[in-house]
Amino acid sequence: MTLTAAPSPPEAAASLLDRLTGRARAPRAERAVVVLHDVTKRYPNGKEALKDVDLVVPEGDFVFLVGPSGAGKSTLMKLLIRDELATKGVVVIDGADLARIPRRRVPKVRRKIGIVFQDFKLLPRKSVWENVAFALEVTGTPRRRIRPAVDSVLAVVGLTGQAQQLPTQLSGGEQQRTAIARALVHDPRIIIADEPTGNLDPVISWEIIQLLLRINELGVTILMATHDAEVVTALRKRVVALEDGRIIRDEMSAAYHRED
Amino acid sequence: MIPFVAFSIGRAWQGFWRNALMSLAATLTMVLMLTLLAGFFILQNVLLASLSFVEQKVEVVAYVQTTATDDQVQALVDRIKAMPETASVEYVTREQALEKFREAQQAQGREDLTKYLESNPLYGSVNVHLTHPQDLDAVTTALRDDPIVRNVLNIQALVDRVVTVTSIVRTAGLAMVAVVGVIVLFIIVNTIRLAVVARAEEIEIMRLVGASDAFIRWPFVFEGALVGLLGAVITLALLTAGAEPLSQAAVGFFNVLPLQLGSVGRDTAVLVFATGLGLGVLGSWVSVRTYLIR
Q1: What are the CA-CA distances from residue A28 to residues A95, A220, A224, B10 (Å)?
Q2: How far is the C-alpha of B120 from the C-alpha of A196, rounded, in Å?
Q3: How many Å lie between the alpha carbon of B25 and the closest alpha carbon of chain A?
């Protein structure tokens, strides 16, 4: 198994925005964007949150990460965005070994990953538009490129009409769609969603899932941690189950619970 | 580079006004602390000036033989004047000494008894003011070694006391300013820290969307600098407004002691600006550092 990904195929060069707006076709799934090899994470207090984890996620995959609280899902996500470093093993994101890249390159790797949280993490004093634009402003994007990018991701998540509202004026589903727009605006290769539907009612949850599926169809790899058994079982996607820091199940087209 | 600086300053300005209450609280704390620091600094300067005034009062008196010629006395005066330890040298002739004695007696309302004298019983004296009272020995020895000097008034005990008192007061003053400085440092850094912690979520989001350290840090550093500068300007305005009435009130005190405080105003301004700006920047820098990429 090769740990480093192959160089980008030419069609991947088309930006996500182009793909989302139908100007380019999605690239075929053929290379690994996330590779964890023999990863162990031990916290300073001695707790082992992950033990000997191996996981390869090809580009374009949709992966559900399931398991009880404290199984290591959050730690796994922290490792992927290099919020934490693995105690042992290798974590590779889109060809970059996170333990080896210099500190100053970490932000660049993070821009390849869009993150969505259960509690949305929107800035309450900024409008929907400003919240999305914020992600571009703080990464030094020139002003003239911010406006079209924000406008088009807001169109993708269907919030063009609410652009000037504050998060507090929105429903939970709209807030989460704002967060997804913010995650998309950097044209990421991967979206990591930590219980994105955890605070939403079932109907709204399905809307969010539909949105993520649509983004996935456009070639963005999606890694979603969830407790929502109904959604996982209905969609028949790849399911990775964690328990006590180990991967106990990794199946394609699977259900929330083991089925044999 | 220029877009980055413009971005940082713009964000700092925004951050300052979006959290206006927090920013104003921080600025107010800055003003109070800088005023406290400036107050102690000025006090310390007044103290130092008073001490050197007291020290300059120390006078070594050497009585000269009546047989000494004017040339000999002049040579002695020139020699002592040339010593680095002396601030000023004055020759008081026998006649002047008698005159002074009479004036002193009269000032105290006593009868002038000198008219009963057949001749002037007093000696002429060379009076030396010292730059530092610690140098008493060197000057005394130099005076004593001259053959025309009859005797040197022994003021060792007095000088010892003056030196002890002034050095204690100096050390105490310095310690006071140092303690106040440390208190000011901690309070200002802590206040700025509170303002930064209040925005922890914003910083976290910046980190998660892939903002580099510089983009996270500099807006806060500029904001800290803004709080520092604003605090310094307000403090100096208050001090300037307060300087006139204060010195009027203290005019009696300052008349008694002709202190030289020429550069204190400028030094205070420099101190207030440097402290405000420096601590504003330092406070933001260390507070943000906690949130940067590990």
Answers
A1: 17, 11, 21, 42
A2: 109
A3: 20
User: Is residue B160 over pLDDT 60?
Assistant: yes
CB-based contacts of B96, cutoff 8 Å, min separation 6: B124
Q: Using the structure block, give the residue that is written with the tokens 């307000």.
A: B234
Q: Is residue A233 part of a domain?
A: yes
- What's the mean pLDDT in B122-128? 88
Is the residue at A2 inside a domain? Answer: no
- The DSSP bridge partners found for residue B88 are B129
**Chain A environment of B7 (Cβ under 8 Å):** 137, 140
Whether B168 has its CB under 8 Å from any CB of chain A: the answer is: no
In angstroms, what separates the C-alpha of B263 from chain A's closest C-alpha? 45
Spatial distance between the Cα atoms of A78 and A94, rounded to a whole number of angstroms:
16
Q: What does DSSP say about strands A88-93 and A32-42: parallel, antiparallel, or unpaired?
A: antiparallel
Assess if residue A257 is contained within a domain: no
Tell me the residue range of the domain where A232 lies: 10-251
CA distance to partner chain B, nearest, from residue A222 (Å): 16
Q: Indicate whether this complex's ipTM tops 0.90.
A: no
**Beta-carbon contacts of residue A250 (< 8 Å; ≥ 6 apart):** A55, A238, A239, A240, A241
Per-domain boundaries in chain B: 2-54+163-289, 59-154
Beta carbon pairs, A and B, within 8 Å? 61
- pLDDT tens-digit readout, B238-280: 988 887 777 766 665 555 555 555 677 888 899 999 999 999 9
The CATH number linked to A78 is: 3.40.50.300
The pair of three-digit structure tokens given for residue B6, joined into one six-digit string: 């413009």
**SS3 label, residue A188:** coil
State the pairing for strand pair B59-64/B149-152.
Answer: antiparallel
Distance CA A30, CA A33 (A): 9
DSSP reduced 3-state for B232: helix
- Answer whether CATH 3.30.70.3040 is correct for domain B59-154: yes
Contacts of A103 in chain B (CB under 8 A): 213, 293
